[in-house]
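Minutes, project check-in
Item: structure for the 723-residue chain
Input as provided by the requester:
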Amino acid sequence: MKTRLMISLFLLTALAFRGTGQNNDNKAVVRDTIKLDEVVVQAMRSLTPMKELPAAISVISQGQLLEFSKTIAPDEALRLVPGVKVENGTDGSRVHLYIRGQGILSESGFRGIQVLIDGIPVNDPGGYCPDLYDVDWGVVKKVEVVRGLAASLYGANATGGIINIISGNGGAKPVNTTLSFSAGSYGFWKALGQVDGTSDKIDYRVSYSHTQGHGYRAHQSFMSDNFSEKVNWTPTNKIKITQLLTYTGYFNQNSEGINMYRYETFGPRAANTDAVPYNEFQTTNRLTGALLGKFDITKNQDLQVKAFFRTNSYRETSNNGDDYKPYLTMGASGQYDLNFGKENLRNHFSVGVDYQTQTVTEHMFAVPPGNQRDSNRVDSYWSRQCFDQSTILINQIINQQSLGVFLIDKLDIARKLYALLNLRYDYVYSSLQNNIPVPDSLSPSGNRTFQKPTWRIGLAYDIFRAFNIYANYGTGFLTPSNDELYNNPQAYGGFNNLIKPTTSQGFEFGARGDVGNFLHYDVTAYDIFSDNEFYRYSIASRGNNTAFFGNMGKSTKWGIETFVSYSPVKNIMIDAAYTYSHFTYTSPDSVAGHFMPNSPENMLYAEVSYSFLKHFKVAVASQWQSKFCIQVDDSIYNHYTIGKTYYQPGSVQSSWVKGYNIFNLDMHYAWKLGWLRGDLSLYVKNVFDTQYFGFTEPNNGPDYNSYQPAPGREFFVNLRLNL
């Protein structure tokens, strides 16, 4: 591990010094960079220069998004954002995502992080984000990531932060066409087509892509279809209407995690013993439509409104059953903005409301035991075969509603001093109607309500271009998600009535700036205190793959996040994002001082890109992560070994997982032939074929922990044409 880390540092240094000897007149174009003076952020509910906001914010440009050839998952797009950890255990776009530890231990997807696509929330009313399937990273224009307590802006959805994804608009010409094709290891390929343009007062964009792959491990294939359409209409200079429509069809086999015995015996590509005989898979078919409007009432007043609907047909098969969940989600929001005051004391005031409702009709059918499965069934890459029994395990209707009212007050105290106050009150309601006949005394039907105010206050001081400082203090509110509420440890179906919301409070301070045109930096320190932290556990009698949730106690999370972008000469760019995290429980006494699961203390992503001969570019990257634990307490394990190898099923030495250091290589050739422009690239991920785990889960059952090995060395090529 140390040897490869030293190699990383050597490559970064060698390439940097090599660039100093180049002629500065070289016309090669390096990747576009984010300059503090030029960045305007809309993730915090209004268009505001980033230097005026007292918050830790990262902005990813379109150039950064198109660096790599796959463009299918957020682990590529968010690679240079400190404080963000993306676990991609499936080699596709089914990921787990955390910001400052928020979202760890979710059974699937993630919670407590507000995800917006063109202003429309992906999260359900309880704050749970199931996936990022609707995002085609090949057509995204910009991503804004707000790290830290942001519940006072978007409610329980945003206790960990905000990811604001903005897709591209129509190009300058009436018709522009982009075609892209990628292919790579393990049967991967992606085809993307996009048409966009501008005509008079309307600009538009329409795109479609198909992606599929077999996956690194057995029984891990995935396939997706993405359609996205966006129209902006500006009838006058005071009115802008945006219409959005997206469709996503996603299928993935679920190889699940494996225990250490299976990993050591059958290798990293093995599937869980349940995955193939039960043909475990998930399917998602989702349609989202939305209308957004911005109306300038006067020079200093405007009104923003939006409304959306979403339908989602979700199915998941496992050894526990065949689960069908049709979703219907609707939401709306309104925001009134008022600007007033003098130049040296100007007030930007906003008040608004968010409303969202969701209904889920769930049916789970029993499946036969493993020894009764059809042994002659062929396990193909795309099989959606499942042998349902007539027994219904779950028949229920779930309803969720959320209502939030908020106030934002940004005060320009002086020419370079800014204050920001956010206040919000949230009401989250969940109900369940059980349709399986049971005695009234045993009925799981019922409802739960969560409500709480949150706030945040901060100051930003733009001393000069090279030194912008900020500080803030705020609170957070995280309600239990669908998984936490409806995975009932007492029976199939019904509420988990014991779990409570998590509350948080904390502060952060940071500095950022640009030194000349060659250096940009961003450093943030934070400390967060949480009560009623969620934890995850298993019940052996309910199947190895069913997760249940409760409240652990209190925790403290503190850390330092840094990002540096340095260009010593015109054709060299060096980027590095380093995160130090110290997340521990402070109560109860049985786990006080223990590290929180899946939270490495050190994470580093460093990248050097070098452009030469006008059309060529090569990038070398190193991704390093230190060890982390899976379980809170090692005492649950049986310490039975044979020599130094842990061959007995259900036995490991400790809950710690070793870290890793992988290297990536990316090469691009850009060309132009008359009116035709194109880009050809080769991407090699994990150059040295390092074995490591892409995702881990705690499991207190007979086989203990669950590991999802990450892919070894992979190759991808991409051809992009702009007509």
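Outcome recorded: The chain has one domain: 2-722.
No further action items on this chain.
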